[in-house]
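Below is how a single chain appears once it has passed through the pipeline. First comes the sequence as given, then the structure the pipeline wrote out for it. We keep one example in the README because the format questions we get most often are answered faster by looking than by reading.
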Amino acid sequence: MGKVTGFLEYDRQEQKYQLAGDRIRHFREFTLPLEERDVKKQAARCMDCGIPFCHGPTGCPVHNQIPDWNELVYSGGWEAALRNLHSTNNFPEFTGRICPAPCEEACTLNLENMPVTIKTIEQAIADKGWQEGWIAPEIPAKRTGKRIAIVGSGPAGMAAAQQLARVGHDVHVYEREAKAGGLLRYGIPDFKMEKKHIDRRVKQMEAEGVTFHYGQNIGVTVPFETLVAGHDAVLMTGGAELPRDPGLPDTNLAGVHYAMPYLTQQNKRVGGEDVSQIEPILAGGKHVVVVGGGDTASDCVGTAFRQGALSVTQLDIRPMPPQIEDKLTVWPYWPTKFRTSSSQAEGAEREFQAATLGLEGRNGRLTGVKCARVDDKRKPIPGTEFVLPADLCFLAIGFAGSIVEGMLAQAGVAMDKRSNVVADDRGYKTSAEKVYVAGDMRRGQSLVVWAIREGRQAAHAIDKDLMGATILPV
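Resulting structure:
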């Protein structure tokens, strides 16, 4: 333990943001990193608990050894902290930016609402690693001669590919889009994570022997059976992309869109990709309503403000949660409590206990969103109906599962009632020979940190099956 009394001496200090009026003028990251001396003080606050809930299954899906690298940062051992962090997480610069940090909710100091700033420290370690040149390709000493296909280059696919390449396999990643990253690149806006972070990892992985094949939609441009025939194992990490049907009338009105096409289009625009063949979805000069209360909805809010929306209203069917949770009944698990994202803080109006009843339009174009308050069972309360004027409406109510048409239909793998591919979290084997699955395609819509965990575990399972033993961590 670096400093026994650190948690008593130092207050929690978080990264600050650029002012909202400044940051909505661009799509770059807007967090202001802490000075190194301040990061060390924050690391000193770690109590080195006897039972550190922060890095168990309660707090961190990848089981980051948080107390260990906190102590190393406090003592100045930054490079050793980076090695420790990489031992459980291939991409800490991703999770240090976009993970909701369940580890901080599980921190013992959160019992006093002052958890260690674990996410900030994680990002600082990774960023310093790149800055100092400590992160380099890890090229295997010998090759196994085994050829592995990975379908999808999101966080699960990237993590699996890197792990498998480092033990000498010939890894080929097949990606439908023009660049790697999956929803890391095309779903998460640049103001939360700039895509240079993905590009650096792709270069590292290419140097380690991973081959990326872009513009390859398996099941469409390449038959799935061809992929299986040409590889010793196939890992499907295509995500859970099927949007949940809101069951609303008039969703065909101009101005009504699912969230992901909107975010994907803008991310491609920011990334310099050609979007001229796509009908533009732009919020400039418009009144915007976002249906949904999650992270994707929040990303729509921030994107709309940066495009110049006149107003943005976010509808959440859930009641307004308490400002502070009851620690004794919830901790160390993820609590339901009132949270304000950076995008919401940029000026969004938030409506709680608001159900979306339908959409209004004129001449085929959206003019308003019909709503009503709901009771405890989320049933509309008669007499509480209201209409929000709207030129654009984004539906951000989650995903229903994986898209079956194409790859999954051709693979013929067993699927559950939620459209997830059936496989356990040890072997990651599907019902088809040589075919594995990991990430959202197996577990359903989840966090990036869970995808990284599943990719790493799937790599362990595949290497063990192909070679009879493995040195890859579970």
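The first helix runs from residue 6 to 9.

See the next section for the split statistics.
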